[in-house]
């Protein structure tokens, strides 16, 4: 049973977005193409493609997205009306360093975020800034093969120095990489690693990708993250710098001991490898065997291990949308998910895109993570992608979204009562934005509706859903009023 008033008064309630799915203005004021800007539209049936050159007549959703670039004042005002204590956002790297290897930052890009942070400060909303969120300058991919090149580390640190210095008195919380562990799977090669793709333009094509390349790219990101932590603390000792994991919660399909070992190993490699390196400052012991079995050899430069040890993060964040089943194949088909997938769980329902809904799994994950790391935790992505219907009177009655988030908040509170040091919750896509996985607008997460469709048509008008008013009550009551 949940204890009353279990959340601290300082708890950070808010919402989360990413520049490439939200900002638009892809080529304005000195910005150049990012990796996301080369991804076409798609659906959950027709996959997105990655093009090496922009194709005339092809729709690229991130180019306009939902145009936060020109609506930031309106949107932040709406966030403030909901009572946001914090707002997780990302900075578009290619808006600050358009070619990645530029010597000096783009002043016009810096000025845009000056305005955004000033607006947030006006409403006492704490920014939580993701430095790299599935969006690197496309020039990094073209010229260097993204994070496969060690040169990316210096470009990233140069970028960090520019934004840490510029916003040292405006931003306290930073996250180095979004869902860094997505580089473990082929879908993350381009999305997270900015690695080259071949002419097919498909995420899972392996002609120019390999586990070896992805894990080497991941190592470069580990070093970059650790260097950023050290640099950030030098620039402002009050900075809090965190990691971000796409948490893949996989249950054993049976109580067969071999299935339990499969679940253990998936948890280790999918979730704990990146957490251990960034929180504990070293590769975990289990990684040696897993790398040997896959014939992976990480090329470490002299001093890398010391850098990792000195650059441990201050807090741990993760995304949580669903769970799945691993091990002996149970009856039923595979389930869909956020990068990682598995088998269907007969005890769970799924959303319209096949992601299984498991609020209790959130409590399990929070306890599991905190037991291992014992540092403050934030849930920085959690939400329900669904098709919303605008009624004739303009209302949007998204009770399904309210129920989803309510059930997860209840389990979140149970975890806090269990003893987990949870300091914040930011619902994903607090305003409708472009889906990263499918490029759709139809797959909506927001408390705020944006008038735009899958083909890029619409007025971009913002309107409040039923969940807007519900979440406002949740925040006002610090999570006590959930009905």
From TrEMBL:
Gene3D superfamilies: Glycosidases. Coiled coil: none annotated. InterPro entries: GH, GH_1_N_CS, Glyco_hydro_1. It holds the Pfam family Glyco_hydro_1. Belongs to the glycosyl hydrolase 1 family. PANTHER family: 6-PHOSPHO-BETA-GLUCOSIDASE, GLYCOSYL HYDROLASE. This is Beta-glucosidase.
């Amino acid at each position: 049973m949940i204890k009353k008033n279990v959340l601290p008064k300082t708890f950070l309630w808010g919402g989360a977005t990413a520049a490439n799915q939200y900002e638009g203005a892809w080529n304005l004021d000195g910005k150049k193409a990012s990796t996301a800007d080369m991804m076409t539209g798609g659906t959950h049936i027709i996959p997105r493609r990655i093009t090496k050159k922009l194709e005339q007549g092809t729709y690229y959703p991130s180019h306009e997205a939902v145009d936060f670039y020109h609506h930031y004042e309106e949107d932040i005002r709406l966030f403030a009306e909901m009572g946001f204590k914090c707002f997780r956002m990302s900075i578009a790297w290619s808006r600050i360093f358009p070619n990645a290897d530029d010597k000096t930052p783009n002043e016009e890009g810096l000025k845009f975020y000056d305005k955004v942070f000033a607006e947030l400060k006006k409403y006492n909303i704490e920014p939580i800034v993701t430095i790299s969120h599935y969006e690197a300058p496309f020039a990094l991919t073209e010229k260097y093969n993204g994070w496969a090149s060690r040169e990316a580390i210096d470009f990233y640190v140069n970028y960090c120095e520019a934004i840490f210095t510029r916003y040292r008195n405006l931003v306290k919380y930073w996250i180095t990489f979004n869902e860094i562990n997505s580089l473990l799977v082929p879908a993350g090669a381009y999305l997270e690693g900015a690695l080259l793709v071949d002419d097919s333009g498909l995420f899972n094509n392996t002609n120019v990708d390999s586990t070896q390349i992805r894990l080497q790219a991941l190592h470069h990101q580990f070093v970059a993250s650790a260097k950023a932590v050290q640099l950030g603390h030098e620039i402002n000792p009050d900075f809090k710098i965190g990691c971000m994991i796409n948490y893949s919660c996989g249950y054993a399909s049976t109580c067969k001991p071999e299935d339990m070992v499969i679940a253990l190993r998936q948890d280790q490699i999918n979730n704990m490898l990146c957490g251990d390196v960034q929180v504990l400052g070293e590769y975990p012991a289990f990684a040696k065997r897993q790398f040997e079995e896959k014939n992976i050899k990480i090329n470490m430069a002299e001093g890398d291990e010391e850098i990792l040890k000195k650059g441990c993060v201050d807090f741990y964040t993760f995304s949580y949308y669903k769970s799945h089943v691993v091990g002996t194949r149970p009856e039923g088909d595979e389930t869909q998910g956020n990068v990682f997938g598995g088998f269907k769980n007969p005890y769970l329902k799924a959303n319209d895109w096949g992601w299984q809904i498991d609020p209790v799994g959130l409590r399990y994950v929070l306890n599991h993570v905190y037991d291992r790391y014992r540092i403050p935790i934030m849930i920085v992505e959690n939400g329900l992608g669904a098709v919303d219907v605008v009624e004739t009177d303009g209302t949007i009655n998204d009770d399904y979204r309210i129920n989803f988030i309510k059930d997860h908040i209840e389990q979140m509170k149970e975890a806090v009562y269990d003893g987990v040091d949870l300091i914040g919750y930011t619902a994903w896509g607090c305003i409708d934005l472009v889906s990263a996985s499918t490029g759709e607008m139809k797959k909506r997460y927001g408390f705020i509706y944006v008038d735009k469709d899958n083909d890029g048509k619409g007025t971009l008008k913002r309107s409040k859903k039923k969940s807007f008013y519900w979440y406002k009550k949740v925040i006002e009551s610090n999570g006590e009023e959930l009905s």
